[in-house]
Amino acid sequence: MTTLKKHEIEVALATEARAVSSGQLKEDNPLDTSENFRTFCEACRRGDLKVCQEMIQAGVNINSRDSHDYTPLILASLCGHLELVQLLLENGALCERDTFQGERCLYNALNDRIRNLLLSYDYAKSTNPLQPLAAHITSLLTRPTPKTSDITIQAYDQTFHIHKFLLAARSPYFAKKLAAAPAISTWKLPQNVPADSLGVALQYLYLSEVSIRKVTLGLSNEEEMAVLNGIDKIGRQLEMDRLFEDITEVSDRRLLRQKRTDELDRGRHQLENWFRDNVMKNKVIVDTHKVDNVQWDRNNSIFADVLLRADDDEDDYASDEADTSPGPSESSTPPLRATLGPLNGIPVGPRQSRSPLRQRQPRKSTIYPAHRAMLLRSEYFLTMFSSTFREAQDTPYLQVIKLDCSPKVLEAILTFLYTERSDFGLDVAIDVLFAADQLFIEKLKQRAALIISTLGNGSTSAVESENPRGEIDAEEAVDIYEIVRAGWDTRVQRLEEFGARYLAYRLERYIDEPEFAELVRESARRVKARQETDTVELVDDIRYYLSDRFRLRFEDTGFDEMMDETTQIDGDALADADKGVDAYVPDVEAQVAAGAIRTLDGEIAGDEFAQDAINYQILLGKIDRLLENLDLDA
Amino acid sequence: MIAGRGRQRIRPPRRGLHGDEIDFESTWDIIQAAFREIHTKNASRLSYEELYRHAYRIVLKKKGEDLYKKVKEFEKQWLSGEVRSSIQLLLSPNLLADAQSVGGTTANERRVAGEKFLKGLKQAWGDHQVCMSMLADVLMYMDRVYCQDHRVPSIYTTAMVLFRDEILHSRTSAKDSRPLLDLLSHVILEQIQMERDGDVIDKHLIKSCVHMLDGLHADDLESENQRLYNVSFEQDYLNTSRVFYRGEAESMLRESDAGEYCRRARKRIHEEEDRCRATLLESTTPKIQKVVEEELIQNRIKELVEMESGVRFMIDNDRLDELNLIYDLNARVDTKKSEVTRAIQKRIVELGTEVNNDAIAASQAAPPPAPAADGGDKPKGQAQEKSLNLQTAAAIKWVEDVLVLKDKFDKVWRDSFQSDNLLQTAMTRSFADFINSATFPRSSEYISLFIDENMKKGIKGKTETEIDIMLEKAIILLRYVQDKDLFERYYKKHLCRRLLMNKSISNEVEKQMISKMKMELGNNFTMKLEAMFKDMTVSEELTSGFKKHVEGLGDRDPHRIELAINVLTSMTWPMDTIGGPGDNDEDRRPKCNFPPAVEKIKRGFEKYYSEKHSGRQLTWLPNMGTADVKAVFPRVLQKDGSFKERRHELNVSTYAMVILLLFNELPAGQHITFEEIQAQTNIPHSDLVRNLQSLAVAPKTRILVKEPMSKEIRPTDMFFFNEGFRAGFIRIKVGVVSSGNKVESDRERRETEKKNDDSRSHVVEAAIVRIMKQRKELGHQHLVSETISQLNGKFKPEVSLIKKRIEKLIEREYLERVEGGEISSYRYLA
Q1: Which of B17, B75, B577, B754 has a CA 20 to 30 Å removed from the CA of A454?
Q2: Contacts of residue B144 in chain A, CB cutoff 8 Å?
Q3: What was the pLDDT predicted at A559?
Q4: Residue B484: closest CA among B517, B450, B438
Q5: CATH 3.40.640.10 is the classification of domain A15-120
Q6: Domains B626-733 and B750-828 share a fold
Q7: For position B516, what pLDDT does the model report?
Q8: Who has greater pLDDT, A200 or B737?
Q9: Chain A residue closest to B48 (CA)?
Q10: What letter would DSSP give residue B146?
């Protein structure tokens, strides 16, 4: 730690203020007075994971501050919501040491767990969340296998193998040029532009961090000037106007980081636009049995080199099984025959449908054009394209690779691969989870799990402290058994924890269900297979969260008065919510709504405190009995 | 897409996955068929996506274990069935035949058969690897999920283990129960042996098979040190190589000479290195090197060095390359290169001792038979003179021989031994050994004589560099000498004579030598020598000063004698050795009656000197010094008939001058007897004899005539002025018999040594006192060792000498014994 004199600090602050006001430097924590942000902050205070996740997906700046100079992270840390702090950090909230806001997070932390969590996220080491995407794209420049490049630029002694789609996305000049002649396979470097300049420009285009110093190292003054001039020229020609500006060396660390963040954002934005305009727009919906008719030429206008196919869910066509899910919306759009290239119109014979009942409407499949270069982000595709199997062979028409998921899921996957965005909803989250697991896209898997665990708490506020008695709304947003099993199958710890906690907070509702017993049995079986411990993991976790839930009651002594006050409000609120409820809700609830304080087994308790204590014991007892019944030793 | 509120539901995941029971058997059939296709190289027609999906579903349905087992089973069958049979085909009888079987196959046939086998195996291995990696790609989900969860090895690893078990550990044939692995090792070893014998083999092929062995492990955990290569092959390789090289060493020793052996050994070493790089694995290099070095070098180096054509031979015949080879080989196994060092040392000492013996022999050589006629003294004297000259010559020869030896070995050291430090120390020690050896006690004297000779005659006409080189050589030799104080003594003596007789050619060179010695041996040594020089310069000044003084005194006296004076500081100059032989303890101040003229000038100088330096006492040494005497001989009939007076200048010793001047007053025809001369001059007897001999007996300088004309001088001999003296030159030098520096006779040497020992005692005592003064109290052992180390630069004192000196010091109450305590220690008494 260095000690600065007062006037030195003042000078530094003044410089910073000037830089900010002149637009050079962005404030780390700008003031935000928008409605969304206010909602966001309020949710942070309450620890409402769902709302926060929604706000983040809505695009709120996670590092702004409100009119009281609080940032969301400070609020979450102050109010002691560990999971929320984790969510914020994972989404890029800053907690940098030696900054005003950063330090406030730390010393305001309510407990040690939060504090340690904050400390473990050392910003200095953390990277931009877009860095993985950028790194992958940069690697495409130098990766020889599998071959995904489709255009070469020859420059004196160096040859660059690059990708048309990236050129089109990042450089308007190339977009136009390639639109006019999509089939070109080489491009010539304009005269008197040194090869090094082109190298720099390409690196920049491929989202790499370019240091002008490294490039001009060891060059004489003349050569250096030539290279810089060349870069300027190329930048202007390719209409990458910020090229020259952005590669200039900057001494201020913050400024440098900001520049990089800006550029990555911009790059992603360009890529996203291009993706939507070219990949998404050109998806084709055909009848499943006519899939083989789809033939795309290699020289297509969006430079796609592979087609991905996703068939509509069978459930949508099969007779109803359990749920009243909304009809398949995807296949209701009119089929667009927007194929490019020669189309072979001879239909193939009818395909075998999986569903037992034949429907009037033929089953549909959606075909998306894609680029192997971006698909390589999935290890599955990486292995596939590096192998010698059929899919890796060179064919005159683009190969169609089927994915075992619905089109909506495939879209979510593609969006993530191309743009690092994961804004899908709860309805496809589990499917995305499984798909990401199968395709070995680790990051996407984690995000799907995140979405499930944050949004999955249903429409009512999921804040624990407000729902200690496990009262639930009428409609369940999630099938918790599915979620827990999904967590097991895809080995995502977060989902297991989420599931256990969910169950713990609503245990009275589930403890008697036969499906619950089945779940416990499965958990026990899993453990045996792994030969780890003798306990049933699920039950252990539930017990833990149960104690957490009731501990909240025991710890804060001042809570009693508050509870006396809010009992009435609670009761009212519950009464309102219960209005549209069906036989799910046990009688106890009705009684409570009527104002009497009863325990779970119907006895009347003196007050909430006693009620909770007794309820806790009751629940624990039920768990033990269940285990006995199942012959499990835990 | 934002998840709306209200009626959003999570749907149960994945059609077909939940609820649908997957049909394991039919799915497995599909997968198995695909695997077969892969193994038969038809992979490009298979859809990766489809196979992957099937495997994925199976694992998701918790049937991962079954799948794993089935795959393993499948591979096992494939390997033991298809692959094994294809390899069996390669096992021709040629291959399996034992190398020594009678009527068996030729080497070439076996080589061809071996190559075929290796090729087949390599192919099988390569195929297996490729296929398995493709299988692993397809089964990626199973590997990542099932294998990790259940902690079983990945399918690829399992397949490698299967290959090892099914192929390499399988029996070679029904009759032959060796595992294939052994056969493989055997074939490879055979091929290598063929290469060693000079054949050309396919190295790539072997290397591929070696890679295979390196990639497989003997255990199931793939531990580092369990690689099949190390466990199974390498050991055999090292063992067979060892046997081979042992045999080769034997035969080479028998057949070829040392140089050839070394060459071939080196060749083999390089060959093995190459082999490890090109055919085997680099990691074997150090191990095989060790084997080769052990067998070819370490176990044989002694024999090699001592061979007839060994080190000795190489040295004598200047085989520098071969010496280098042997050195190199020795260095590989022994950083101290002890064998070579020992041999070299032995040789040096041998050759050195030869030189020593030559010198001793030469110095004792019987003098050539004296010419007849004059019997008695003269021949004996001459013989003695000749033998002494011979000895001097032997001395000089010795020095030169040693220098030659040193040069030779220096060259060897530089060129063959790469200026190795250890060897240099060893060589120095050997040189020191024979130079200081007990059987050859004269080295110091000889070296001093060598220098002396050079100063007097040797450097005439040589360039500066040559002179420098010569001086350097002398210093080099000096370094080896242990008893440096003995050398000092000799050198002083010789230098004194040189200076006084003005025999050195160049004072500059003398001074150069002194400075070199100063650098080498320290100040103490050269202080006295420098003082001698100083005295000489001072004397010159005195002489010129006195001359001026005399001139200023008054008119020139035609009979004035010119005086050139040398004033010697008494302690600096070795007084005792200046005197001629025979007058040591007595006659320290030789007396002499000078003629009046001489006396006059003598006194004049004494006065002059005492004015200059009061309080100093001068003692005249008439036994040194020379005089130039002008002699006028009466007319003699010349050839051309005229009479001419002859004038000669005679350069004689002081004594001779005194003697001659006696004849000045003698009327012609008169004589003086020996006794009279003795009485008048008071010259010591032996000096007188010698001088008279040179004046009257020596053929060329018979200024006097002796009666009777015999070599010996008897008291009754009569001496006349030789009027008929003839000589060719005007200036004649009358030398005095045996006044030059020469080798001391044995007697002289013993005396010198005795003197040396005496002074050594003093030095030792001084050292002891110095040490004790510093330490106050010291134990006996410590004192002795300290003393030795302090005197290291001068000489090596014997322990008995030190002991005696300590006793003496105790007597004189410089030290006292400390009572009590087990070890005897001493205390310093102030």
Answers
A1: B17
A2: 440
A3: 42
A4: B517
A5: no
A6: no
A7: 85
A8: A200
A9: A389
A10: I
pLDDT of residue B560: 67
Domain B24-222 sits in CATH 3.40.50.10860: no
CB A312 within 8 A of CB A328: yes
> Which of residues B437 and A54 earns the better pLDDT score?
A54
B351-381 residue pLDDT tens: 888 888 887 787 776 444 444 444 444 444 4
Are the C-beta atoms of A542 and A623 separated by less than 8 Å? yes
The predicted pLDDT at position B10 comes to 52
What is the DSSP track for B81-142? IIIHHHHHTT--HHHHS-TT-TT---HHHHHHHHHHHHHHHHHHHHHHHHHHHHHHHHTHHI
B545: amino acid identity, one letter:
G
Architecture (CATH level 2) of domain B227-334: Up-down Bundle (1.20)
* Reported pTM: 0.65
Vertex B783: Cα angle to B782 and B789 (nearest 5) = 90
A495 touches chain B (CB under 8 A): no
Q: B48 vs A384: CB contact, 8 Å cut-off?
A: yes
B152 touches chain A (CB under 8 A): no
% chain B with pLDDT above 90: 1
Select the residue from A324, A428, A447, A489 to test the B interface by mutation, using most B Cβ atoms within 10 A: A489
Ranges of residues in chain A whose predicted pLDDT is under 50: 317-354, 358, 459-465, 468, 470, 472, 474-475, 556-586, 591, 634
For B:339-398, CB contacts with A below 8 A are none
Return the exposure string of A457-480: e unless at least 16 CB atoms fall within 10 Å of the residue's CB, then b: bbbbbbbbebbbbbbbbebbbbbb
Q: Nearest residue on chain A to B151, judged by CA atoms?
A: A530
Instruction: For residue A399, give both structure tokens.
Output: 């190969």
Assign domain A282-445 one CATH number from 3.40.718.10, 3.10.410.10, 1.20.1250.20, 3.30.710.10.
3.30.710.10
Partner A, chain B 111-140, Cβ-Cβ below 8 Å: 134, 137, 140
Contact yes or no for B44 and A388 at CB 8 A: yes
Q: Do A389 and B10 touch (CB under 8 A)?
A: no
Residues B514-572 have pLDDT tens digits of: 888 888 877 777 888 888 888 888 888 888 888 888 787 766 666 667 788 888 887 77
* B429 CA: distance to closest CA in chain A (Å): 57
* Average pLDDT of the residues in B611-630: 80
A431 touches chain B (CB under 8 A): yes
Q: Beginning with the edge strand found earlier in the chain, give each strand of the sheet holding B718-721 in spatial order.
A: B671-673, B718-721, B704-707
- Is residue B474 very low, low, confident or very high in pLDDT (cuts 50, 70, 90)? confident
Q: What DSSP element (H or E) covers B628?
A: strand B626-637
ipTM (interface pTM): 0.75
Interface test with B, best of A55, A320, A404 (most B CBs within 10 A): A404
**Which residue of B lies nearest to A435 if distances are taken between CA atoms?**
B14
The minimum CA-CA distance between B91 and chain A, rounded to whole Å, is: 33
Contact B134 A402 (CB under 8 A): no
CA distance A517 to chain B (A): 19
How far apart are the C-alpha atoms of A162 and A373, rounded to whole Å? 10
Match domain B750-828 to its CATH number in 1.10.10.10, 1.10.3720.10, 3.40.605.10, 3.30.1330.60: 1.10.10.10
The hierarchical CATH code for the domain A131-247 is: 3.30.710.10
CATH class of B626-733: alpha beta
In DSSP terms, which residues pair with B217 in a beta bridge?
A: B227
Say if A479 is an interface residue toward chain B (CB within 8 Å).
Answer: yes
Contact B13 A486 (CB under 8 A): yes
Task: Please check whether residue A15 touches B, CB under 8 A.
Answer: no
The domain spans of chain A are 15-120, 131-247, 282-445, 456-629
Q: What is the pLDDT of residues B374-392, one digit of tens each?
A: 444 444 445 555 555 777 7
What average pLDDT does chain B have? 78
